Amino acid sequence: MSYPSYPYDYMYPNEVVDGLVWLPIVATYMLFISLASGSAILVSLGVLFNVGVLRRLTPLLLMVSLASGLSFLLGPLADLRRPDRAIYIFIYPHVIPSEQYPGVSLIALMASFMWPLLVILLVATWYLALYKGLWDFFVTRIITLMLILVGLVLSTYPALLLFTALPILKIYNLIPLLPAEVLMESIALACSIALLTLIVHYRIAEASISRLLGLGVIVAGVIFVLLRFLEMFRLHAYLAGAPHIQIFLEVFTGLNIVTLILALISILLAVHVYFKGLKISSILLALVVLLWVFVDRWLLVVNIQSISKTLIAIIPVSLDLVSWALESIAMILLAMFIYYVLYTWVIKTPLLTLKGEGGRGGVG
To answer: In the chain, where do the E strands start and end?
Structure first.
């Protein structure tokens, strides 16, 4: 019996049985998670630490976080081979170990516990801080403290999912700093999308807000680049030579270079926004950061799946990009609809006014 020929010689025949573990829609799903969690973290920082300019952005950030948070479960739903059974992850979540079913399902934990908790905390923050104006109320601070913790967990979830779902690749040994990297990407994405949304609403962003959000992208981008360079140095200097490292680098290097270039361009654009605050540079910043984070998610979710389970070959994967595009557009449209509903009938204003500035008050 003869088996297919691959660049790295012999390959076990059962390596092509399962095909893709995740469909490309999971990359979009993880992008939405980053946006929802990053925005939630910024909301928490503004309310919890009384950051004046950031507090003014509370309505906008709440709407962005809720809109993306309420729509991102469409991603794994579209990825399921049996979407009709999706409800069972909520009815019978595997979050408590038993003798029959040991361990805990990370996906069930996130879907049935962390996701509802994120939505509940966002709604509670809106009610107490915006609707009631209880910014310094003890309960408000407790809720926002919980929200920042949930945001931190969800923002690092893409890395945790990779570490647990693709253990054969030993990703946690190859790129152990990935949780911190995806956290920085979430912060940069939330800052840039908030800036873009403000420009859509007001045609321009105030200088103080542009500087703050631009600074957020600069700090998050610089930390991300340093962490990724550190991991690449570690891979090339200390782990080079092992066959599975070479396979990993062959798949990882190309899009990783693109990711780093986009991150560096984002930093430069953020510097320009910080000093100049021009509308065109703010729009470009949001688009480049969005592309940067998406390329990195595609690299970590889709590209890595081309590595064989025995780490001896690279198997080109066949992608249905049309279905992925349609599913992604559906998620975007749902998020935009939820944002429109929140803006029109619930929160109604994207930007608060500080006391003493006229207009709406209530922000200390």
So the answer is: none
Say if residue 92 is in the same domain as residue 188: no
pLDDT one-digit tens code per residue, 246-292:
889 999 999 999 999 999 999 999 999 999 988 999 999 999 999 99
pLDDT in tens, 341-356: 999 999 999 999 866 4
Q: How far apart are CA 133 and CA 351, in angstroms?
A: 15
**Domain assignment present for 6:** no
Question: What would you report as the CA-atom Rg of the chain, rounded to the nearest whole angstrom?
Answer: 22
Question: What is the secondary structure of 43-91 as a DSSP string?
Answer: HHHHHHTT-HHHHHTHHHHHHHHHHHHTTTTHHHHHH-S-GGGTTHHHH
**What domain range is 159 assigned to?**
18-165+320-364
Cβ 289 vs Cβ 189: under 8 Å: yes
| Residues in contact with 344: Cβ distance below 8 Å, sequence separation at least 6, in sequence order | none
Are 233 and 259 within one domain? yes
Number of domains in the chain: 2
Contact 165, 26 (CB under 8 A): no
The mean pLDDT value for 74-101 works out to 84
139's CB contacts (< 8 A; 6+ apart) are 128
Burial label for 201, CB within 10 Å (0-12, 13-18, 19+), is middle
Global pTM value: 0.92
In a domain, 1, yes or no: no
